[in-house]
Amino acid sequence: MDFQRELDARGLSCPLPILRTKKSLADMASGDVLKVVSTDSGSVKDMQAFANQTGNELLSQSEAGGEYIFFMKKK
């Protein structure tokens, strides 16, 4: 998937992955896609809730080797 920016949130615990995601999206243009890589299993629920609350679109999420990868499109 194409993306404009990548956020490495490996090793960060809740709520830091979401806070960093919010900050990264704030600096991006509408329609841009942010890739987030996290090792916090709680970020799966957090990213879904964040997308629902903010109107940003969670395009996909996956897990591989203990890393959670999210693609979020800025509203």
Structural account:
By secondary structure, this protein is an alpha+beta fold. The protein has one domain (5-73): Translation Initiation Factor IF3 (2-Layer Sandwich), CATH 3.30.110. Helices cover 31% and strands 35% of the residues. The protein has a 4-stranded mixed β-sheet with strand order 1-2-4-3, covered by helices on one side. The longest helix has 12 residues, at 43-54. The radius of gyration is 11 Å and the shape is globular. The chain starts with a strand and ends with a strand.
Rounded to the nearest angstrom, the radius of gyration is 11 Å
Instruction: Name the CATH class.
Output: Alpha Beta
- Corresponding CATH architecture: 2-Layer Sandwich
DSSP helical segment count: 2
Could you state the CATH homologous superfamily?
TusA-like domain
Order of helices and strands: EHEHEE
Most strands sheet: 4 strands, mixed
Number of strands: 4
Strand order of the largest sheet: 1-2-4-3
Number of domains: 1
N-end to C-end Cα span: 17 Å
Shape: globular
Poorly predicted tracts of residues: none
> What oligomeric state is this?
single chain
Fraction in beta strands = 25-35%
Structural class estimated from helices and strands: alpha+beta
Overall average residue pLDDT: 97
Percent helix among the residues? 25-40%
CATH topology term:
Translation Initiation Factor IF3
Compile the SSE list and pairings:
Blueprint: E1 5-9, H1 16-26, E2 33-38, H2 43-54, E3 57-64, E4 67-73
Parallel strand pairs: 1-2
Antiparallel strand pairs: 2-4, 3-4
